[in-house]
Every structure is written in C-alpha cells, then in structure tokens.
Design goal:
The chain is an alpha/beta fold. The protein has three domains: 113 residues, 3-Layer(aba) Sandwich (Rossmann fold); 82 residues, NadA-like (Rossmann fold), CATH 3.40.50; 78 residues, Rossmann fold. The protein is 44% helix and 14% strand. The chain has 15 helices and twelve strands. It has a four-stranded parallel beta sheet, with helices on both faces. Helix 13 links the parallel strand 11 and strand 12. Helix 2 runs parallel beside helix 14 and helix 4 packs parallel to helix 5. The two termini are 29 Å apart.
C-alpha cells in the first residue's frame, strides 16, 4: 500500500473561503478533517461529481469531474477504496471500469430520473420493434441498460458515437433532449426514448430570454440535456466539462450557466473574475450525498456497489466501444 498522509483542511484555505462563509466552514471543519483521517486509514479516495455540494467538492474530494471522467480516474488511482459522491449509476460505472476496487456510495438511494426512465427489458423490446437497428445508450443509465446496448456515449461525444456506427437509423436512449440535439447535428435518423433529466428539463427558453432582457449581451451556455428552446437561446451548448472549459477559456465578465446549482457554485471558485448568473435548479438526488454520509461510508465501509460479473462484462464492452471512437475522451 502506498504511503498516504492526512490532509488538514483549514477554514482559511483560499478555495474554501471563496465558496462558503468562514463561519459555516468552521462548523464543517471537524467533519472534513475526520474524513481526511479516515481516507488515510482506509486507503481511500473520494470522487465528487460536478453537481455535488461545495463542502464535499472542495472540502474532501480528491478527484472531481463528470461521471465517465471520474469512473476512469477511479481505475487510475492506486487507492483500494473509492467513495463515489454522486448518484448510483455513476458508482456502477466506476465499479465496471475498476472491478477489483471496493466502490462505496454514501447513500444507495441517490438515484437519477433519467437513469430510472429505462430498463434493460425496455431495450430488449426496442430491439424487437426495430430489428437490426443499433442502440446507443447515454452513460447516464444503469449497468443493466448499458449491458443491453451496442455502444455508450457521453454528452460531449454523442454525435461522434452515432456517426461512428455508419447506420441510417439509430436508437438513442434515454434522454430525448440530448437525442434531439444529436439529431440536429447529424443526418442519421434518431429513434428517441422519452426520458429526461428533471433538473435540465425545468429550464425554458423564455426564462433565458428574460435574462437577455435584464442583462443585455450576456452569453448563455447550456447543457444538451435541456429542451430545444433552451438550446436555441444558448451561445454555447456542451457537456459539463465543455461548459467549464468554455468559461475558463473565454473569461467573460459574466455568463449565464444553465445547469445544476452546485456546478455553478463549484466553477465560481475556479473563475473568481467571472460573474456567474445562475438560473438555478437543484438535483434532489445529488443532495442526498452529505459530508456526514461520506464519513459514515468510510467509517463503516458501507453501501458497497456490487455488479454481477456477466452484466458488468457486457456493459464494459459498450463503454470500451465508445472509448475506441476517434476523438472520444
């Protein structure tokens, strides 16, 4: 086991000071430092998705990012235990990519409206209805769904993945809005599934037009899980990583970031010179993951994510096929 050292997080740390008032961090500090001690004792790392609250994201996370990036990072770390501060399908993805590690999720009920909208049985029915048509599944799906599909995709590479199949028609599941965005970018016929992210679906084009009226000239960036009228109003459409990269690269005076609340909070720390105008929607599932639950997960090594090896192997094939597509990262 590689030597590990306790990281002491202080209320005066610059990143922390930019995120949450000092008084609140002072109350959180004992819990944060207890987690840091447990990470050393358990040979563990904490992975935090971009939508996780700043206290976890900046306080105890060793690696941060989107769901697929974190799963790949889990495989690259030398830690024996991975605590995934995210929702259940993300922890499953980490487990199928690094089956020899112990993967824990602080709250096993942290689900996802999008992932819950489709099952493996649904995919089998689609295949009977559309024989011979390849199935592309968004990574925001359960391992069972991934195992039934031909290839996975992320929001950043969905168009490239669809076009890599060389098919006239493709079944795209489960996000109807991401599917419509892909359809607008390719000549391939897309057969949709009626799933949606409850966070991004709540945004509207009229809401964004109101921002333009109140803040003339402000750029708007949006995630492709948003409805078409939102994307029509956006100056840039991209994945969570793409949105972060756009803000860091362009450094506008202010920007409207159309995504989950905590992501805006976390990005604000990294670009203190940019004013983030936030049409804020919370993910209730991500908010089930708390500092206390992260601590308990480490303390008791509880809520281990287990995946049937045969299903995991089939799901891994779909992920590996995606990763083999040129330009996919």
């Amino acid at each position: 086991m590689p030597e590990r050292h306790v990281r002491i997080v202080a209320v005066t740390d610059v990143e922390i000071a930019r995120t949450i008032p000092a008084e609140e961090w002072a109350a959180l500090e004992p819990m944060i430092n207890a987690i840091e001690q447990l990470k050393v004792e358990r040979d563990a790392v904490v992975l935090a998705h971009n939508y996780i609250t700043p206290a976890i994201y900046h306080g105890v996370a060793d690696l941060t990012g989107d769901s697929l990036g974190l799963a790949r990072a889990a495989a690259e770390t030398d830690a024996e235990v991975v605590v995934f501060a995210g929702v259940h399908f993300m922890a499953e993805s980490a487990k199928i990519i690094c089956p020899d590690k112990t993967v824990l999720i602080p709250d096993p009920t942290a689900g996802c409206s999008l992932a819950a909208s489709i099952t493996g049985a649904d995919i089998r029915r689609l295949r009977k209805r559309y024989p011979g048509v390849p199935v592309v599944s968004y990574v925001n799906t359960s391992v069972e769904v991934k195992a039934e599909t031909d290839i996975c995709c992320t929001s950043s590479n969905a168009v490239a993945v669809v076009e890599s199949l060389g098919a006239d028609r493709v079944i795209f599941v489960p996000d109807k809005y991401l599917g419509h965005y892909v359809a607008s970018q390719t000549d391939t016929e897309i057969i949709f599934w009626e799933g949606a992210c409850e966070v991004h679906e709540r945004f509207s084009g009229e809401e964004l037009r109101e921002y333009r009226r109140s803040v003339p000239g402000v750029p708007i960036i949006a995630h492709p899980e948003c409805p078409p009228d939102v994307l029509d109003e956006a100056d840039y459409v991209g994945s969570t990583a793409g949105m972060i990269g756009w803000v860091k690269g362009n450094r506008p005076e202010r920007v409207v970031m159309v995504t989950e609340c905590s992501m805006s909070d976390n990005v604000a720390v990294e670009v203190p010179d940019v004013e983030l105008v936030r049409p804020c929607n919370l993910c209730p599932h991500m908010k089930k993951i708390t500092l206390e639950k992260v601590r308990n997960s480490l303390l008791c090594l509880e809520h281990e994510v287990l995946v049937d090896p045969e299903i995991a192997a089939r799901a891994r094939q779909a992920v590996d096929r995606m990763l083999s597509v040129s330009g996919t990262g």
